[in-house]
Fold this sequence. Notes:
Helix content is about 30%, strand content about 20%. It is an alpha/beta fold and about 290 residues long. The protein has a seven-stranded mixed sheet with strand order 3-2-1-4-5-7-6, with helices on both faces.
Amino acid sequence: MIRTEPTNFHMEKQAVRRSFEQASASYEASAILQDQVGAQLIERLDLVKLEPQWVLDLGSGTGLQSRRLNRRYPKARVLALDLAAGMLQQARRRKGWRQRQYFCQGDAEHLPLTHAAVDLLYANMSIQWCNDLDQVLREFARVLRPGGLLMFSTLGPDTLTELRQAFATMDDHPHVSQFIDMHDIGDALVRQGYEMPVLDVERYQLTYASVDALLRDLRAIGATNATAGRSRGLLTPRRLQALRDAYESFRREGLLPATYEVVYGHAWGAGPRAEHREDGTVAIPLHQIRRRS
């Protein structure tokens, strides 16, 4: 969810971090859509001329896209940054890394990096876990070098619409995170001074034999409900059965659909703005970040 003001759908960052920590071991095997979107996002780099010295993979997870970026730009240094330390620990265990790979734990809304540090900021399916889109884009602009490229994907408001509607038959609590519209993302890019922003939307549909299988997949990638207004009670057997019954109205050809609206975008940085770090975050020069051991 991306919001610019406090709402009942405000993300609890500790809950987000905890979910991804718990999912770190199962994430890569289950993140089929995230992998597909990430690969397509990297393919879109064919449309631009760029020879980066530093690449930031924001929300890197277990490092699958970092490894691809590593191969695509063999002369570049790639920094994998994630909110969850467990994800980075899993990434370090993967094979195939080159010597120019680095790791750092951090929050997209308060990046622990100095001004004008990276030439390419790649953010695949990660900024939807932030609360303040303008703050995130300010941070991205701050760490991008003048003329640097922001390349990102995120989720749109039609994501998991079937699950959202099924839960709505049970109560008024938010059970599925709210996501921002593509046009609002474009407006925020303009507000934050990005040049030549380009956005488009694609829809994907995964299918499942049961709601239980969908919920297992969401838990396996850490995409659980972390909104402040969520119901704190457990999904009891009775409520789970009610959810199953409500979701059945969407069954087609023996399978249940799960729709994802994916927003793709890129824009060029115009240079960092003045830094105001009231949160106490320490900005780290990239040369001080340790390489992968």
